[in-house]
Amino acid sequence: MRHHHIPMLLVPSEEEHTWSIYNALDENFLELKLSLFHNKRFSGSSHGWLVIVNEDYTLTLHKPYFISKDDISASKTSVHLPCFFPPELDNLDYDTNDETDPEEEHFAHEDDSDPEDYLYLDSSYHVLKVLITADPLINPNDCTIVVKYGGLGKLAFIKYGKDTTWTKIEDDQFRGYEDMVYYKNQIYVHSRGKLASFDPCKGTIKLIAPTIFSLRATMKYLVESCGELLVVERFLYFFEDGYERITKMFIVFKFDFDEAKWIEIESLGDFTLFVGDNSSISISATEFNVQANCIYFTHDEVGLPTKTNESCDLGVYCLKSKSLKLYCNLDSTTFHRVYNRPPIWILPPNGY
């Protein structure tokens, strides 16, 4: 999918319910700020919609309209979705005697936390990421919403305007979902190295490619770029206190559908990627006059709110030079807000 706008980064401001807007093209904050009655983490961003999980575990999609700084009455459109699975109910079906698939032993320690710990998460941390296949107001008949949720990375979906309840995506051969993408009219999901396709009409999931074994990445993102399906692997370093982290490097693979295998690539060509808690985005670097062959990343997947985090893992990584630099320099007073309200990329609407 080709995007016609450069993503904007929402960063928590010093005012409650208010977000500053960072433009990566100009490397500056806009004078305009986004005001929403929401002072917690956004649970996702897709198709220009921000995802909010309410206290009662219903979901709200907000599409903010970024307008000129002279008009302070920002217009917003909202879509309300049914109640999701609360953590205390969802964990009832967790099988503590479940054995690890030998093929997945490489990933066995990536999910070693006790699922009961997640009972103490607030609602905004229960849903980790959201994929929207089409704009629910413009193309409601084609809109399916897929949610990654819970400490074990489960998936659920709802067909907008057709379903009244959420449906879990369950298959014993797939566990610990990492990301999902809508590519060539098909939903693809990544599960511990496995690539699978999902059909929301039939509720079935099909293995496309078995596990790949590269270096052990901390996080993985699926994204369409220049007609190719890519997986972006992100490697983090955690300091001894377990709270501070920094990104060290990225490795990118494209999927060869003829050979049914992943192939490592050294270049994104003219394209630049934006990854984080949002549905990953690819744009033409030439069209927007940004540096090509780079990956902009945010401080995402924050996790359990245990204490104030004093680090903010924002930056841009160049695949050619394998170098990393910070962007959107934040002062120390902003760091403590990032843990409860992590920055997130969003695509501005048409007409911005």
From TrEMBL:
One Pfam match: Beta-prop_KIB1-4
KIB1-4 beta-propeller domain span: 26-317
InterPro entries found in the cross-reference section: F-box_BR-signaling (IPR050942), KIB1-4_b-propeller (IPR005174)
Biased composition range(s): Acidic residues: 94-104
Superkingdom of this protein's organism: Eukaryota
Region (Disordered): 94-115
PANTHER family, alphabetized: F-BOX PROTEIN SKIP23-LIKE, OS07G0183000 PROTEIN-RELATED
Name listed for the protein in its UniProt record: F-box protein SKIP
